[in-house]
Write a structure and sequence with these properties.
The complex is a heterotrimer of chains A (312), B (94) and C (387).
Chain A (H helix, E strand, L loop, with lengths): L2 H4 L18 H9 L6 E5 L3 H6 L11 E3 L5 H17 L8 E7 H6 L2 H10 L4 E6 L39 H6 L5 E5 L4 H13 L4 E6 L3 H5 L5 H10 L6 E4 L2 E4 L1 H7 L8 H6 L13 H21 L3
Parallel strand pairs in A: 1-2, 1-3, 3-4, 4-6, 5-6
Antiparallel strand pairs in A: 5-7, 7-8
Helix pairs in contact in A: 2-8, 4-6
Chain B lengths: L31 E5 L9 H5 L5 E4 L2 E5 L9 H5 L5 E5 L4
Chain C lengths: L4 E3 L1 H12 L3 E4 L6 H12 L6 E4 L3 H14 L3 E5 L1 H6 L1 H9 L5 E6 L13 H4 L7 E4 L3 H16 L7 E6 L8 E3 L4 H8 L16 E2 L8 H30 L6 E4 L6 E5 L3 H14 L4 E6 L1 E3 L3 H8 L4 E6 L9 H10 L7 E6 L9 H12 L6 E3 L5
Parallel strand pairs in C: 2-3, 2-4, 4-5, 5-7, 6-7, 11-12, 11-14, 14-15, 15-16
Antiparallel strand pairs in C: 1-8, 6-13, 10-12
Classes of the chains: A alpha/beta (312), B alpha+beta (94), C alpha/beta (387).
The complex binds thiamine diphosphate (TPP), iron/sulfur cluster (3 copies) and magnesium ion (MG).
The site of thiamine diphosphate has 18 residues of chain A, from helix 3, strand 3 and helix 5.
Chain lengths: 312, 94, 387
Amino acid sequence: MNLKELSHTEERLVEGHRLCAGCAEPIIARQVLMGTSKPVVVANATGCFEVSTSNYPFTSWNVPWIHTAFENAPATISGVEAAYNSLKRQNKISEEVKFVVFGGDGATYDIGFQSLSGAIERGHDFLYVCFNNEAYMNTGIQRSGATPKGASTTTCPSGTCTPGKKEFPKDLTRIIIAHDLPYAAQASPHNWKDLIEKSRKGIDTPGPAFINVISPCPRGWRHDGSQTIALSKLAVETCVWPLYEYENGEWRVTGESLRIAEGKKEKRPVMDWLNSQGRFKQLTKSKFSPVADEIQQNVDKKWESLLKLCHM
Amino acid sequence: MANEGSSSLPAGGMIIEAGSSKKYKTGEWRAQRPEVDKAKCTDCLTCWIYCPDNSVMVKDEKMVGFKYSHCKGCGICANQCPVKAITMKEEGVE
Amino acid sequence: MSEPMAINGDMAIAMAWKQIDPDVVAAYPITPQTIIVEAFSDFVANGEVNTEYVCAESEHSALTICVGASAAGARVATATASAGLAFMWEMLYVTASMRMPIIMAVANRTLSGPINIHCDHSDAMGGRDSGWLQLFGENVQEAYDNTIMAFRIAEDMRVRLPIMTCLDGFIITHALERLEMLDDKTVKDFVGPFRPVRPLLDVKQPTTYGPLAMPDYYYELKYQVQASMDAALDVAKKTMDDFAKVSGRKYHLAEGYRTEDADYVMVAMGSTAGTMRYVVDQLRAQGKKVGAVKVRLFRPFPAADVAKLLEGKKAVAVMDRAMSPGTGSPLYMDVLQSISRMKDPPRVSNYVYGLGGRDLIPGQLTEVFQEIMANKGDRINFMGVRK
Ligand SMILES: Cc1ncc(C[n+]2csc(CCOP(=O)(O)OP(=O)(O)O)c2C)c(N)n1
Ligand code: SF4
Ligand code: SF4
Ligand code: SF4
Ligand SMILES: [Mg+2]
């Protein structure tokens, strides 16, 4: 797979959407949809991506697309897929169709978690992609279950007493893997090859698949829009966001994470990550420097445990 | 302001013209404009895969410029171009 | 027509669904609806239907799955009650606004708290402004007949709205009654094949479903639901006429009983209608000029039909199996709006009854008639409550 070949694929998400300049969400969505040449139906949870790509009477979608609410995109696609199975069995349709869901971290980690868990347990055939920008961005940067410790949001602001969010985020990818589904992964848009390949696997694998993608948000993370891809790479290089996949019960680190695991690439300090975004700027104050240390320790701990799972 | 009546709109809010947002020109949002120096450009298409707004134009596997009607001027392309062939210029300044 | 059988209301609905054979059913169990989905699961397990049956992990997801399936191009049915319907509330509006002709059986049960599994109409009333049509059945036969008519009304191109087929929890859902089923072919022909509109699965014509609409379009899109509701009154009437031709059972949006020369009329919905007619007969035997109106279609409210039945009456008692703390109950409010342009409108009183499954005995309805005949009673009365 190379970019020249990919440049011939039809654009399934077109321009004219109203996401902020430099938003990672459309970059991710384009790459995910390059993961298959088969027809797809897309379901979307409420959030930045949904409102910005479907501002009536305009749509940025060149493929069938449906949004019904915030907390239920997995159920929405379950219904579409159930109809597909039924109509196919009755010979009312013949074409092969694939199903992809996009949801933010709020939709995925928090309010729609039950819907996702239920749809995975039922075994519907779909790929769920989480745009993890680590907060509720559409409603103005509120804390979510994915917001990292030490990040300032509008509902866990940094103040004189608190450094921002007090808790570590939940490890949703591992929680999803605990469903023992056929395929799950973490990815980043800077490594397009890795993300497209994971999307291809997720779409082609029969049954449910899940990919959690780090999604820099210039507005919420307070960084320049031009840095979006550079930051998604930094998240991987610091092991804040390792690239890995879980396939048929096997764990595997991929991309830069594999090279770091093999000692072929430097594991950068978390401080580089914290210094790159306005949401962490309070952590540079000496008062909150223990928090930065705790974050580094947590990243190290999670990284070591991931390597164990990968038998490395 | 819209002027279509309720009965003339497709039922239930569905949008039947796929990809119609192309008509909404987000290029007006732009403060900075990317410009490419084709002499430096290697047509690697890195800028194309990272553009959030499908605004890097590619023809026959070659980078042929920007879709200024929609480019929001985020600067990702310039930041990611491996050979620094793209520069961001203040919009309105020649 | 097959031999009459003894069957409960939930089973009657499951049997109607089986004859219609929807493409997708998604549901979540809740008393007193559960018999429907259990019975239907058996049909699926034994290959008696083509339906893809999805056991949702909640009612919110159940209705969402129905919406996804309906948008995809499938004929869809579901069932719920009480807390389940309340949990669906957000999606009720979405379903109607997206114009999905989904049929949902509602085994009317009260809402918590306190938690209680018995009948009243509070659950359905929570959805009355959502854009769903609401049909109320009086007995097992009507639960079955309403279900069959509902598919045709909902799927009519002038309507394309979801319908709740309501039946009183336990009183109808669990009571064994006589049912005359239509034969399968009659039902299939009556309902006709499902006609999808721009289905999602038509990948050659990509359609965007459920976009964001700002103030410049939201109102116009919402008004479509109103326009469809207006059309639904005629479509429902016509469907009931056609149903009479195949079944011999003639229904109306609102049905008068001995109202022609009556001065005093009682209005109710659901299983209470039978009790009401019994009391009317008793009082008629005593020479009292009383009558009854059963409202079958609550949404859209057949205001003109109701007004016609109440024109020239002296007093009306509206029996509500639900309450709206702080104001009049839903059926009462709708009866009031129906008569609001009358020159000499009747005196209308509201009687709240039967909440949380509280028994209704005929003597209580006799007392209500006596009260309105004596020009007594408050505007809003809470029948039988220990204050
Ligand atoms: C039931 C419900 N609760 C709350 C909201 C308000 N709401 C809309 S989008 C959103 C946050 C979305 O966050 P996320 O899923 O992370 O997506 P993002 O916008 O960050 O991409 C919230 C809270 C809603 N639409 N529905
Ligand atoms: S707020 Fe963040 S996630 Fe939302 S559109 Fe802007 S950059 Fe993207
Ligand atoms: S990234 Fe730079 S070198 Fe590559 S195609 Fe774009 S402008 Fe040319
Ligand atoms: S500046 Fe941003 S929007 Fe414009 S072409 Fe470059 S990457 Fe695309
Ligand atoms: Mg988010």
